[in-house]
Design a protein that fits this description.
six-stranded antiparallel β-sheet, 3 helices, 263 residues, alpha+beta, 16% helix
Length: 263
């Protein structure tokens, strides 16, 4: 039996213990451990904004999507949103970063807002996070909800998206069904709306919003908007015509896209 009173042995034991702790900290987490962290993370955030700048957004408690990305060796992730008067305002994607969980945010709001985590301000987008544009189509929104969903799926299929990491284009796949459906009585009135996701693996990289919006004359028309869920350069096309491009993300406290590192 070796006495640990020996200073050399004690030093070696200390190094071994420290190394074990480091590797334990960086060890892969199980799906259950990650999901437990994903479930808790959204509860720490509070968002206040809207037309008055004083309304609190409402968390949709269940994830819209649980995902993985084998290409980036990300075993699990989850997407959550916050809404105001029914309309989505903020999207958040969670994914593991060693022993922590990072928070990737995209503003879907038409207004500035303030984001806090446990009372501490972490994000304050100064302008709209998404630009809703008129969708050029001869298709008029149908009267029934079932028929409108068929229309929105068909309209979404007219879009394609790709990433451009390091100058090499990678086409994205669109999930066939929307990950969220909504309506809102706030002006402009959204009769029906959906969020579609372009994915790598099942990891959302681009969000496509399609809305049937009621005008002042009572007639409805289709509108669309796009938001990034990746810092990589990207492009979206409608019927093979480029309609939206985003360079590698430049993040700050006030940009509409931001990654908040895990703690």
């Amino acid at each position: 039996m070796v006495s640990i009173g020996n200073p050399w042995i004690a030093a070696l034991l200390l190094v071994a213990i420290s190394t074990t702790a480091i590797f334990a900290e960086d060890a892969p987490q199980t799906a259950d451990q990650l999901q437990a962290k994903f479930d808790k993370a959204p509860l720490k955030f509070m968002f206040v904004g809207g037309p008055s700048g004083k309304e609190e957004f409402q968390l949709v408690p269940q994830p819209l999507l649980n995902w993985s990305n084998p290409e980036r060796r990300t075993p699990a992730g989850a997407v959550y949103i916050w809404t105001l008067h029914g309309r989505p305002e903020v999207a958040m994607s969670l994914y593991p970063n060693y022993s922590k969980v990072d928070h990737e945010f995209q503003s879907l709001s038409r207004y500035p807002f303030n984001a806090k985590i446990e009372g501490r301000e972490v994000w304050n987008p100064k302008g709209p996070g998404i630009e809703m544009k008129t969708l050029e189509t001869d298709t008029k929104p149908a009267e029934s909800k079932v028929a409108r969903l068929r229309q929105m799926r068909a309209l979404a299929r007219e879009f394609t998206a790709s990433l451009d990491p390091r100058g090499k284009t990678k086409e994205l796949r669109m999930l066939p069904s929307p990950i969220y459906r909504y309506s809102s009585d706030e002006k402009p009135v959204v009769v029906d709306g959906t969020i579609f996701a372009f994915v790598q693996g099942t990891d959302p990289e681009v969000l496509l919003l399609i809305e049937a919006v009621k005008g002042d004359d009572g007639a409805s028309s289709w509108h669309y908007g796009l938001g990034r869920m990746s810092m990589v350069a990207m492009e979206v096309r409608h019927n093979d015509r480029a309609v939206w491009k985003a360079n590698w993300a430049q993040q700050s406290h006030t940009t509409p896209y931001k990654v908040v590192p895990g703690e």
